Amino acid sequence: MSKKRKISLSEEELVLSLQHREKIAVEALYDMYSASLFGVISRIINDTAIAEDVLQETFVKIWHSFSSYSTEKGRLFTWMVNIARNLAIDKIRSKDFKNQNKNQEIENNVTFIDEQRNTVYKPELMGVKDLVQTLKPEQKLIVELVYFKGYTHVEAAEELGMPLGTIKTRLRMAIMELRKHFN
Amino acid sequence: MEDLKAYIESGILELYVLGDVTPAERLQVEEMASKHPAIKAELDEIERSIELYAEENAIEPSEQLRNRVLGSLLTNFGDDNNFPTPTHVQHENVVAMQPNADKGTNFYKYAFAACLALLLASAIALYNLYTRLNDTNTQLSAMQAQNQHFSNTVSAKDSELNLLRDTSYKLIHLRGTAKSPESIMTVAFSPSKQKVVIDMEGLKLPANDQNHQYQLWALVGGKPVDLGVFDATSDSSGFKNMKAIAAADAFAVTLEPRGGSASPTLSEMVVLGKY
């Protein structure tokens, strides 16, 4: 897990070597983005094994459809995170996943329910919780739904019983907060 | 510029970055971004904040996963176009089973129909057989009864013949008295066997009524001895054994009240014959 072993390139270099389909680009891509993407996938899928499967599928899809990415469309991470989120959401909505949840062994149920309700202590989430605390409650709710739970803004509006416009405004406000925080 | 500001503040750019827009909206945002540097810059800002946010929320996957993912990417390095993931193979397997399952249910449908038809045909055949068996049983019992009747008749005729052949028997013809001159009957008497038999078939006596019966008497030393009662009917047949007696001088028949009398009513004597 030492940082030194990991390969890091600038985004431009990475995109270029991926377009040339160089082996080193694959390793750099994984080392630079696997943790960020896994963080997003893990928010949507609580089961670590399934989340890891989805992460693998994400990298496979990124690698095979890389030709459809261009720097003009935006940042590389934005393109990749949308692939990851879509695969994760597809997974939790798939028949397989739902059936799997129905067939939980009784012994696993306690931890399973704990995981479902996010009561498991995850040290890596500490920072997030703090950050989300800095958001106003109504912004926090929308970020939770749209970013953590994989809702679309239309679904979030239905869930919260709010007009679409309000959802959009609040989401924008929340992201403005984050921008302030990072600057 | 007011329009651009309103467009930025509508929140569409954030949704675009989160991938939560329709294809039409996507094209619109991309067109606006290529036309207006301000929107391009705003998009870039949003993307960076999302990326930083994700970095802050990063979770390190397990060390083995790195090898697994890199292995699966690099193994198929030269074979990009058909990369099958294990999950996809499973899905294809599941789908491939579907038509077989359909065929199976069809087969069972037809098999079930065939079984029903067979069952119906069997039931009809069984019913026919049962009816015929009943007919045959009826015929058989009728024939058995007939057979029984024949063997009875034969054995009766046999015993009659034996009686006639038996030399110890003597046939005595009782003739009608003045009271009924037309009457006649035959008595077979064997003193050695002490047996008295009357021939019912050759009997010619006036038919008796419900309250009266004929009674056979033996005259032994001038005294009448009761030998039993009998009815004279048109359909009587065969021989009838009467009471035993060792010796007799003559036989006579009188008409007595039903059940017989202790002594004969001589005025009602119908036939008489000497031994």
In short:
Chain B: It is found in: Cell membrane; Membrane. With 183 residues, chain A is mainly α.
Question: Topology, pairings included?
Answer:
The complex is a heterodimer of chains A (183) and B (275).
Chain A: H1 11-19, H2 23-44, H3 48-64, H4 76-93, H5 95-102, H6 109-116, H7 126-134, H8 137-148, H9 153-160, H10 164-182
Helix pairs in contact in A: 1-2, 2-3, 2-4, 3-4, 8-10, 9-10
Chain B: H1 2-9, H2 12-17, H3 23-35, H4 37-56, H5 63-75, H6 86-165, E1 170-176, E2 184-190, E3 195-199, E4 212-220, E5 223-230, E6 239-241, E7 250-257, E8 269-274
Antiparallel strand pairs in B: 1-2, 1-8, 2-3, 3-6, 4-5, 4-7, 7-8
Helix pairs in contact in B: 3-4
Molecular structure report:
The complex is a heterodimer of chains A (183) and B (275). Chain A has 183 residues and is an all-alpha fold. Chain A folds into two domains: 1-120, RNA polymerase sigma factor, region 2, helix turn helix motif (Rna Polymerase Sigma Factor, Chain: A), CATH 1.10.1740; 121-183, Orthogonal Bundle (Arc Repressor Mutant, subunit A). Helix content of chain A is 71%, strand content 0%. Chain A has ten helices and no strands. In chain A, α2 (23-44) crosses α3 (48-64), α2 packs across α4 (76-93) and α3 packs across α4 (76-93). Among the domains of chain B are: 2-59, no CATH class; 170-274, Immunoglobulin-like (Sandwich), CATH 2.60.40. Chain B has an eight-stranded antiparallel sheet, with no helix packed on it. In chain B, α3 (23-35) packs across α4. Chain B is rod-shaped. The model of chain B is unreliable at 79-93 (pLDDT under 50). The chains are: A mainly alpha (183), B alpha+beta (275). The interface between A and B is large, with 55 and 46 residues.
